[in-house]
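Exercise: predict the fold of this chain.
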Amino acid sequence: MGAADSTRGSTATAVPLGMPRLPNRHADGPGPRRPEDPRLLDRFGRTATDLRVSVIDKCNLRCTYCMPADGMAWLPRNRLLTAAEIRRLVRIAVRDLGVREVRLTGGEPLVRQDLADIVAGLREDHPDLPLSLTTNAVGLAERAAELAAAGLTRINVSLDTLRAETFATMARRPFLDRALAGIEAAAAAGLSPLKINAVLLRGVNDAQAPELVRWALERGHELRFIEQMPLDADHGWRRENLVGAAETRALLSRDFVLSPDPRARDGAPAERFLVASKDRPGAVLGTVGIIASVTEPFCADCRRTRLTAEGRVMSCLFSREETDLAGPMRSGATDAEIAGRWRDAMWAKPRAHGMDRPGLGDAGFVQPERTMSAIGG
C-alpha cells in the first residue's frame, strides 16, 4: 500500500503505512483549517474515495463476533434511508465529493426487498461506477441473476467455514448450504471476482484456514482473512484471543508458500499474498489476503467513508461521533448543504481506531456502542 493521497492546497503531508502523522501546525495555533477542496479530505492527508452504504441493519444470521444470540432492536422502517434517498446521497458523493466506488452493506442487504431497485437506480445514474455488495449469501441463489441484471458489479461474501457444524456454531443458524448455493449462483451470474471474507476464531475455525484457502483457489475466488474486531454486541472481544495476521500467515505457511503480491495495494484494506503449493513453489495458484485492522493497522491509507442505514456519516468504523445527513435532507437541505456537512464530518475523522492513536483493546480504547451490523462494513 502506498502513501495516502496528497491533497491540493492542504497543509497535511502524505504519510507511510501505519499511523498518520499530525499535519503541520503552529504549536499554539488552532489546528489546520479545511482547504477549499471539494473532496472528502481529513486532517491527516487522507482522501475518502470509497463509499460504504448500509441499506439495512437487520441480518438473518447471528454471528457470534457481531451480534447477540437474540434481543437486537432494529431500526423502524421510517428511519431507514429510502431507495430515492440512497440514490440522492450517492449522486452527491460521486458528483460533488470525489467518490469513485460504492459498496452496499448491512446488516444483510438481501433482507431488503427493494435491493435490486436500489442497484438499478445507482447504475442508471452512474453507468461506469464500480458497484459491489457485501453479503452472507443466504438467499443469494434466488437473487444473484436479478442483481447482476440490475447493474451490480461484483460481490463480497462473508463465509467463515465450510463445515456445517462450525457454521451453525458461529452464525447460530444452520444455513451453510444456502450460503454455498448463493456463492455458486453469484459466480454463474458473472458477479466476479468474488471475494470471500473469513474471520478466524481461536479454537473454533482457525485450524480450518488452509481448507478455506484450497476451496477458494479451486474456484478462482480471492479469500481474505479479517482479524476479529471489537464490534461485537456482547462486548466479549479480547485482544489475547485474537488470531492475528502473523499467526494466520504461519497457519497458511504449513500448507502453502506465500509471497508478497507485487501489485500496489492502492488503499485496499487487504495485504495480498501469492499462493503456491509446497511441491511447486514457482506455480502461483492464486492470491489470499489478510485484513489486519488490529495488529497491522492501515489507517494511514484509509480511503473509506460510511453511511449508516439511517443516513449518518461515520468517518471510521470505530467512530463514536456521527453526522446526520438524513434529517437535513428530509427537512429540505440542498445538495450543496448536504455535501458541506459530509465534508465537515470527514475533516474531523480521527487519527485511528476512533481516537488519536492506534490500539484496539489497549488502555484508552472505548468500544463503540454500535455493532458491525448497525454500522455497515
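Check your answer against the key: The mean pLDDT is 86.
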